[in-house]
Structure formats: structure tokens, C-alpha cells
Protein: N-acetylmuramoyl-L-alanine amidase
Organism: Blautia acetigignens
Amino acid sequence: MEINTSYLSDHNTYRTNNPGYIVVHNTDNFSEGADARAHAYAQFHGNLSGTSVHFYTDDKGIAYQTAELQRGCWHVGVNYGGKLFGTVNNRNSIGVEMCVQKGYDFEKAFENTVELLKTLLRMTGISPEHVVQHYDVCLKNCPSQIRKKNAWKRLQQEIAVPDNATLRQGLYKVTTDALNIRSGPGTENDITGVIEDRGVYTIVQIENGNWGRLLSGAGWICLEYAKKI
């Protein structure tokens, strides 16, 4: 899944976020052209009053990230009796909106959203069981189109199947200019260092799907940003 970061901003966000959950939404904006890029553009320019999310998807195959994961977004909203309200909030979750513009292809948008969720699970170490509907949190009928098509259980089943089940210990080359080393296998753990040399490192343990423990003992890195050699 390609993730475009051209529209990252701090609009309608909190300074801190410690994501342990992912909350899935539908935009319910059926206007022509109301796709992921249009919503990302609107959030970037501060045109979405009182709301924000971290990612937008649609049926075109590119996800748009609009806020850094360490910033909390305004997406949980008002409680109408949801069982997870309070447990899940704007400061411990990642908000993902699936856009449903006029004439969109539901199946493509759904599968693109699933692909993004799998990527986020690998990147963060969040458990698939912590991917929830907005409905679960607030009792709001959202994601309305996924719910309308009775596709939520299918989404849960698809994200529960890891794409990277064949990851093994061994040598990995870092593919980004700055890769955080953390004290444990997930973004909820403290940063203990940063790899900045795109070097080759030995991984001696795999946990949470895509997190590798460094032979040096320095900590754990997300193997989404490294390639096995």
C-alpha cells in the first residue's frame, strides 16, 4: 500500500498520542470527487471543522496520511452508549477513514482499507483485536457502508491473517534514513535510539508480526523499514 504524506499537518490534533487501537470510519460524503486526496487536502488546509483522522483511503489504491501517529486526532466524538467509550479515545488510537464518494467501488475501497490496516498493524505492533469500529466506541452507525454490507467480520478475518508470517531472524538492511529503536516490540514502547546509516543489522527475535530485536541488545526495530538480505 502506497502511503502519501504530502498532506501531513497538525490541524485539529492533540500534541500527544499513544496508539493502542485503530478506529475505522466511513466519511459518508457521497459528493462527486470526495475521495481520499480531497479529504486529505481539506484537513491539511484546516477546512474540516472539529474533526480529523490520521489516514484516508478510497478505491484508488493510495492512502493519504494527514497526521503523525504520535499526535492525537479528533475522530472518536460523542458517546451514544458505546461499550468502548473511554477505553478508546483520541489520545490512544489511530483514526482511519474509508472514503465513499459518488460512484465509488466498495470492494476496492474495502480491500485498500484492509491493506492499510495490515500495514499499520505491522508498523505499530497493535493487535488485530484492537482494530474497532467507530460504532464500538460511540454507538454511532460508523463505518456505515461497511456495516451496511455486513463486512466488518470479513475485515476482522482479513487483518488477522499476517502478510509477513515468513519473516525470520537474520540480517536486515535498513531502508529509511531514520529508524527508531524502541525498548519493546511496538510503538507504545520508549525510543532508545535511532538508526541513521541505512546499515545492515542482525535480528535475533521476531515479535508482534513485524518487530525485530537487535543482536546488539539496543532494542527493537520495525521491519517494515528494513529488507532481509
In short: DSSP finds five helices and 15 strands in the chain. The mean pLDDT is 93. The longest strand covers residues 200-207.
